Amino acid sequence: MDKVDFTGVSTLLDFACGAGALSVLAAKKADQIYGYDFSPKMLEFARENAQIYGAKNVKFAQKAFEDDWTDVPECDIVFASRCLEVDDLKAALSKLLAKTKKRLYITFKVGGSFVDGEILDAMGRKVEQKPDFVYLLNILFQMGYLPSLSYIKARCHAGATASADELVQKTRWGLGGELSEAEEAKLAEYFNSGKYEPKLDFMHWAFVRVDKANRS
Q1: What span, in angstroms and rounded, lies between the C-alpha atoms of 25 and 35?
Q2: Which of 51, 77, 139, 145 is least surrounded by Cβ atoms within 10 Å, i.e. has the fewest?
Q3: Residue 135 CA to chain centroid, in angstroms?
Q4: In this structure, are strands 58-62 and 75-81 parallel, antiparallel, or unpaired?
Q5: Per residue in 174-184, pLDDT tens?
Q6: CA-to-CA distance for 39 and 17, rounded, in angstroms?
Q7: Among candidates 85, 79, 82, 39, which has minimal Cα distance to 58?
Q8: Dist CA 9 CA 7 (whole Å)
Q9: Residue 158: pLDDT above 60?
Q10: Whole-model pTM above 0.90?
């Protein structure tokens, strides 16, 4: 939030808002905020959080990148935080920019995977690397924009992994899906062998700002 320029901002669109953390934080900085997410459960949490923190100027609704955006309002600034791992990145960016009057703010992970390569090797899992933030920047350049880039350093897990079960849970989260029994067994063996050493206490996120007026 400290990196966002709220000068002259009246309206804000928070797309893929999740539980509404950014929407709620921005409630005192804009007159009207619109939060969209594809998950009804996340929207339920978002409405609860808005009520808890008194963010009365936030409206939430269900919407995905694949949906029709005709009813999505154009806003002074737009947030797209940690949500752009989509099949058609250019199409998603086009939709976001079409609803942006002044500035679009994006956070995108640095690196192709949330899970360390040694853990993937230990469990015998081959993972197709997702496009890095450089791919995002290249698309924006091709679209005629001159994005600015900085980085956010964020803790990627709470403390050291204390057990094989915890390693399994964190790996499952990082891969965004279930693990097979064989994979879980290999991870447990890897942890109990003493070979497992956490490499990253932090991960970096690319923070990208796109000014609609700043064109090449």
Answers
A1: 12
A2: 51
A3: 16
A4: unpaired
A5: 776 778 889 88
A6: 10
A7: 79
A8: 5
A9: no
A10: no
pLDDT at residue number 127: 67
CB 8 within 8 A of CB 32: no
Tell me the β-bridge partners of 106: 80, 208
The tokens for 124 are 């015998």
Kindly give, in sequence order, each residue whose CB lies less than 8 Å from that of residue 166, ignoring residues fewer than 6 positions away: none
Q: Output the DSSP codes for the chain.
A: -TT---TT--EEEEET-TTSHHHHHHTTT-SEEEEEES-HHHHHHHHHHHHHTT-TTEEEEE--TTS--TTSPPEEEEEEES----S-HHHHHHHHHHTEEEEEEEEEESSS-SS-HHHHHHHT---PPPP-HHHHHHHHHHTTB--EEEEEEEE-SSS---SHHHHHHHHHHHHTS---HHHHHHHHHHHHTT------SEEEEEEEEEETT-B-
CA angle, residues 37, 155, 197, in degrees to nearest 5: 125
CB contact at 8 A, 98 and 124:
no
Q: Who's near 126: CB < 8 A, 6+ residues apart? A: 120
Q: Are 204 and 152 in contact (CB under 8 A)?
A: yes
Other Cβ atoms within 10 Å of 93 Cβ, number: 21
